[in-house]
Amino acid sequence: MDPREDSAEVSVVGQGARIEGTVTSAGSLRVEGEVKGAITAKGDVSLSPEGRVEADIQARSITLAGQVRGNLTAEGEVSLPTDSRLEGDIHAGNVAVGGVVKGNIVAGGKVELGDRARVEGDITSKTLVIADGAFFSGRSTMGEE
Fold first, then answer.
1. In the chain, where the domains are located
2. DSSP annotation string for 116-144
3. Per-residue pLDDT at 107 exceeds 50
């Protein structure tokens, strides 16, 4: 297979599926079921609202609509919509939080907290945007990483 095609592949952990161990994807990964262990993807990782993950996740970018217990590492963006809940740390380029994060956030660029965001932990970033209505308990360090 041509390695350039790998990033176009999308693997799916479907609803009702439970995986324990390490999940590795050459492309992108969508989690609709449960994963316990570790997740690594060369592409993007997305978690549906029904998804439940107890794992560290490493990917190009990460979008979480479900519940995760573990640390997130992304080269690009980490996005947590309003229905998401994360217990763990985030290391990424940019981070957009609409849900709940209990852990520290380190971003090379911008961290944005939406009006329904709830963050309990420290934030390190170049830029921090906090919308009216957001809750933030912790320290903010801004500037170069």
1. 47-137
2. T-EEES-EEESEEEE-TT-EEES-EEES-
3. yes
